[in-house]
Each structure stands twice: as structure tokens, then as C-alpha cells.
Amino acid sequence: MSPAFLLTTLIVVVTPGTGVVYTLAAALSRGRRASIVAAFACTLGIVPHVLATVTGLAALLNASAAAFQVVKYAGVAYLLHMAWATLRDKEAIVVERDPAAAGPLRLIVRGVLVNILNPKLTIFFLAFLPQFVDPGRPHALPRMLALSGVFMLLTFVVFAAYGILAASVRSHITSRPRVMTWLRRSFAGSFVALGAKLALTAR
């Protein structure tokens, strides 16, 4: 495992994106346990991208402008849906007294979709992994899977750390409805901004 791979992966994972925003929202609204579930869900959403890269579907996605656009705008639509749901639903970012009642299945489904509907992640793997795997050498496929596993592990650890830190301040905002309103609007705005960024990016 090269230091360059670990450093590049850490930079990519630490940089805030849709997964981080989603994990922070779960942490502030439902607590530490929910943030870990959200981090796990976002990490789980990476699996299809890894499989697409390994099986060659990522190359097709990269070569076909139409396929890329379909997946991209599905992701944009979902991010805008998340923004609207967060802004409209006043219960979306509300500190809950009983985090266990939130329902982990909903957190997992949303978290997985956040990363599945991001074609840039597939393209990233397509461009990123080959730099650290020589396809001409034996065991190239196991190495690619191993590197993908490390990427996913670091993703979970970093996202969970973001979530745990955010969950630690929940008690300070429980009795401040204006802060919660501001947070709800901020998260909605973040989803809109990320959706706009995805819509404007090319392959």
C-alpha cells in the first residue's frame, strides 16, 4: 500500500461532499448512532461504483455521453429532492429525544442513494485506481479490490468522525429552534449547491 495512495484517498475523503453533508445532518438530528449508520450507508453506496469499475461498466459510462448524462441528472434530481425535503420537512433536522425511533432503514436507503447517484464517483475510480494497479501484472483484480476496500474503510472512518463530532454538540442546540431552522436551511442550500456543481461538471 503506497503512501501516495493513502494520502490521495484521505484528501478525497476528507473534502466535504454530499456524503459528509448527509452524515452531519443525521448526526445533528438523530445523534451519534444515526451518524454512524449514515456513514456506513454512504460507504455502502460506493460498492456499485467499485463493481462498475472492476467489471468495465465505468469505461462504458465514461465513453457514452448519453449514459453519463442520464446518471448525472438522476443524481442532480435526487440532491434537489433532498434539499426540498430538508427545507419543507421541519422534522428533517430536528434533535430527537429518542434517536432509536428514527428508523435506520430510511437512513441507510437515503445514504446509499446519495453515493450511488453520483457518476463522478465511478469516473473517479476509473481514473484513480489504475494509477496504483498495473493491469499487466498478476493479481491485478484482487489488488484493485483491496485498494477499493481501503478507500471505503477510510471513507467510513472519516465520515463517522465527522458525525460523532457533530453529534457531540447536539445538546447545545436542543433548545434553540432558530439554530435548527438555520441548520435546516444550510443543509438544504448545501444539497442545492452540490447538485448544481454536479450538473455543471463534465466527464
The number of distinct structural domains comes to 1
The amount of helix comes to over 70%
Nearest-angstrom radius of gyration? Answer: 18 Å
Strand content range: under 5%
Largest beta-sheet details: none
Low-confidence stretches: 91-101
Helix count equals 11
Instruction: Give the termini distance in whole angstroms.
Output: 28 Å
Order of helices and strands: HHHHHHHHHHH
Structural category is: mainly alpha
What is the average per-residue confidence, as pLDDT, rounded to a whole number? Answer: 77
Number of strands: 0
- Quick one: overall form? globular
Short account of what is shown:
This protein is mainly alpha-helical and 203 residues long.
Task: Describe this protein's structure.
This protein has 203 residues and is mainly α. It has one domain. 77% of the residues lie in helices and 0% in strands. It is built from eleven helices and no strands. It has helices at 3-14, 18-30, 32-44, 47-55, 57-63, 65-88, 104-116, 119-128, 140-167, 170-173, 177-200. The longest helix is centred in the C-terminal third of the chain and has 28 residues, at 140-167.
Q: Layout of SSEs?
A:
Blueprint: H1 3-14, H2 18-30, H3 32-44, H4 47-55, H5 57-63, H6 65-88, H7 104-116, H8 119-128, H9 140-167, H10 170-173, H11 177-200
Helix pairs in contact: 1-9, 2-3, 2-7, 2-9, 2-11, 3-7, 3-9, 4-8, 5-6, 5-8, 6-11
Write out key terms for the chains shown.
203 residues, mainly alpha, 11 helices, 0% strand, globular
